[in-house]
Write a structure and sequence with these properties.
This protein is of the alpha+beta class and 200 residues long. The protein contains 10 helices and 5 strands.
């Protein structure tokens, strides 16, 4: 399945929640209206399966994960000891593109994915071009010298963004200090419903 490359606002409106990492007044006003010609009509009540599916779609859209990737993550956590929903969130949060975004190096996950894909991100001093790479505790993440001079990057880096507890950052160098826990991150979807969807 190909990655969606259309309008990002359309994705956010389909899920009824701001998943675009930014506050846009035009989007906030339209979040409760689904995209398409019938968007203003009252939505049908979802079945149990439909509700689970929507929660999964929210997570996929927010993190930019394809179905095959998401299924692999679920299968992996199923075979790991611990809280399945917390382990799944941990895998989503430690994707390289998400860590780049969470460290405040980019203004969105979409931008972070581009940076990684174009070779602007180093992990432990080596260039990595795989956005889905799973970072590990102790990994040092930094931007290339070239992209650090980009005006958009300079602007984003100047913002005072609150770092999550499992990350550390000094200037243009960040670090995954430990694996994330559920209490570290607020997410706009229900992890338990996603687990139920895949365990059917």
């Amino acid at each position: 399945m190909a990655r969606y490359t259309g309008p990002k606002h359309k994705l956010a409106r389909r899920e009824g929640i701001n998943i675009l990492d930014k506050q846009a007044a035009s989007l906030q006003r339209r979040l409760n209206v689904k995209p398409g010609v019938h968007g203003a009509k009252r939505a049908k009540k979802l079945s149990e399966f439909g509700t689970q599916l929507r929660e999964k779609q929210k997570a996929k859209t927010m993190y930019g994960v394809l179905e095959k990737q998401f299924r692999k993550m679920y299968d992996r956590v199923q075979n790991t000891k611990g809280d399945t929903s917390e382990l799944l969130l941990s895998l989503l949060e430690t994707r390289l593109d998400n860590v780049v975004y969470r460290l405040g190096f980019t203004k969105s996950r979409f931008m972070a994915r581009q940076f990684v894909g174009h070779g602007h991100v180093l992990v432990n001093g080596k260039k990595l071009t795989i956005p889905s790479y799973q970072t590990k505790p102790g990994d040092v993440i930094e931007l290339s010298q070239k992209i650090q001079k980009n005006p958009d990057v300079i602007k984003v880096m100047a913002e005072d963004r609150q770092l999550l507890a499992f990350l550390e950052r000094k200037a243009t160098i960040g670090k995954l200090a430990r694996m994330p826990k559920k209490d570290d991150v607020e997410v706009p979807f229900n992890l338990q419903l996603i687990i139920e969807y895949y365990s059917r």
